[in-house]
Backbone:
């Protein structure tokens, strides 16, 4: 369990269901990071990544003085400095295996992360915040880059993250003049997602993450992956990503549940499972076949009608027909509007229903227009 993790420099807990919180716990050093903290951060982020029961991550700093003020230059990490000095390319390797690895781990998450910022988020601390998807800052927060002030570089990822958040000219100005901004200015520059009164910051952040945790996990993860790639690919390539992703999302248990909840006017209960259970799929196909036959068959698509009749008559083999059913663009809606047909009903029931509707009609309504409404 994520909340059971124990570290020297971090606190891991789960303040609400499906939400993980990771607190940098060096308030006496304004949460400046050490190499040991970076190693622990990587382990904690990996634990969150691999726990499918957790949907959103909050990253924050202990106390009110600082979120994180970058690397610790106060002399408290002497053992690591000695190791760096003794190794070939030691400084570069320390960056690669330290905070750079943490920033990459955050940016590569397929679940949302939120930086909850009190006090200062500067230098590497600002890079750490920008590696998260959202940044909720107290109205007393201060954000900027002070690395050049002591001759250091924005080497934790800031040279890439800062210009993408605020533009190249503003990023250069901030770093070269080692500027620190108040929360309002940081919001205008694009460094902050939302400003909240300090007393309300935790509650607002938790409510935001709870709203995320209530969404369809699989769709959220795929959406984040697609959008994260958007800056590195063309529009056409992004569309190909979407074409591939729908083969994961559309047949998922979440889509079955979401559409059923929509039709039943209730809140969905998403599971994040990639595929619906065989029973749910079989029932979906049975209901879709029954709806087809109630309309007298698909006179404009004879092959599709024969397929529905076959599925309805061989319900125990329904899984073999999922792909063909998906081609109708309507199998998601087949969970609802059962019209009295139960899972155990046979092809005879379908024939009886069809006999009551001998006049052929086209199934163009629900059958073909579903996709434009629900994104098939």
Residues:
């Amino acid at each position: 369990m994520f909340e059971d993790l124990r570290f020297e420099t971090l606190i891991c807990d789960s303040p609400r269901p499906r939400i993980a919180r990771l607190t940098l716990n060096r308030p006496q050093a304004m949460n400046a990071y050490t190499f040991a903290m970076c190693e622990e951060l990587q382990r904690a982020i990996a634990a969150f990544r691999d726990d499918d029961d957790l949907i959103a991550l909050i990253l924050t700093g202990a106390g009110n003085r600082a979120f994180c003020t970058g690397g610790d230059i106060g002399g408290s990490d002497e053992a690591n400095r000695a190791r760096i000095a003794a190794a070939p390319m030691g400084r570069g390797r320390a960056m690669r295996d330290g905070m750079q690895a943490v920033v990459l781990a955050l940016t590569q998450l397929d679940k949302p992360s939120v930086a909850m910022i009190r006090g200062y988020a500067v230098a590497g601390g600002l890079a750490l915040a920008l590696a998260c998807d959202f940044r909720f800052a107290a109205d007393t927060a201060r954000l900027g880059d002070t690395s050049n002030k002591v001759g250091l570089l924005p080497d934790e990822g800031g040279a890439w993250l800062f210009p993408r958040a605020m533009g190249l000219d503003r990023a250069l100005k901030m770093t070269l003049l080692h500027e620190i901004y108040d929360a309002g200015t940081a919001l205008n520059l694009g460094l902050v997602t939302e400003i909240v009164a300090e007393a309300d910051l935790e509650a607002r952040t938790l409510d935001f993450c709870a709203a995320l945790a209530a969404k369809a996990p699989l769709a959220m993860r795929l959406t984040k992956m697609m959008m994260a790639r958007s800056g590195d690919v063309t529009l056409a390539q992004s569309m190909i990503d979407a074409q591939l992703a729908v083969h994961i999302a559309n047949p998922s248990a979440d889509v079955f549940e979401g559409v059923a909840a929509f039709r039943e006017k209730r809140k969905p209960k998403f599971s994040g499972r990639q595929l619906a259970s065989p029973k749910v799929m079989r029932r979906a196909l049975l209901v879709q076949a029954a709806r087809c036959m109630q309309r007298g068959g698909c006179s404009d698509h004879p092959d599709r009608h024969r397929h529905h009749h076959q599925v309805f008559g061989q319900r125990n083999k329904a899984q073999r027909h999922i792909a063909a059913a998906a081609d109708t663009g309507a199998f998601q809606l087949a969970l609802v509007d059962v019209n009295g047909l139960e899972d155990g009903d046979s092809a005879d029931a379908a024939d009886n229903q069809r006999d009551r509707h001998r006049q052929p009609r086209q199934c163009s309504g629900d059958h073909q227009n579903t996709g434009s409404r629900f994104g098939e």
